Amino acid sequence: MIYKIRCNKCGDIFQAETERQGLQKVRCPYCGSMLNCQLGDGKPFRTRARAVLPFSETREVDAKTEETQPTAKVKFLKMATADMLEAAKAKLNSQSQQVSALAASTTAATSEYIAKSSSRLKAFQEKYKNGDLWIFFIGSFTFILLVYIGLYLLSVLTNFVYDSHTWLFKQYIELKNSIGF
Fold this sequence. Notes:
- By secondary structure, the chain is α+β, with helices and mostly antiparallel strands.
- It has helices spanning 63-68, 82-127, 131-179, and strands at residues 2-6, 13-17, 22-27, 34-39.
- Among the domains are: 1-42, no CATH class; 97-127; 130-181.
- Helices cover 56% and strands 12% of the residues.
- The two termini are 27 Å apart.
- The chain crosses the membrane at residues 133-154.
C-alpha cells in the first residue's frame, strides 16, 4: 500500500510503500530524518490540551487548515447572584425544617411503640414465673427463623440471577453466531 507522509522536520510530503500496517519507522528522502508513522487503520490519536487559546488570540488560520485543527468546547460558568444565593438559602431552610419535622414525628412514634411493647413485656413477666426465660427463648427462636428465611430468600435470588445470566449469555452467543461475528 502506498501512503503519503509529511515530514515533521522539513515539512515535505513524500510517498512510502509498505505491506504492513501499524507503527512503522520511515526515513524522509529529503532530510534523512526517521519518522514514527501510524500506517493503516490504527487507533485514533487523542491527547489532552495543556492550554487552550481562543482563536482570536492565535495566528491567522486559513479555511483548509481550520478543518483539521482541534477545537475545544467553551463552557461559561454563571456568577452567583444575590437572588440565586437567597433562593438556595430558602430552599435549604425549607428542606431542613421538613427533615426536622420528620425526625420529631419518627422519634415520638418510636418512643410510644417502645413504651407499649415494654409494658406488654413487663405484664408477661409478671404473669408467668419463667417469663424472662420464655421471652429470651421466643426472641432467639424468632431470630434463628428469620436468619434461615433470609438465607433461603438470598439463595433463591442468587439462583435466579445465575440462571438469568446464563440464559442471557446463551442468547448473546446465539445472536453473535447468527450474525456471523
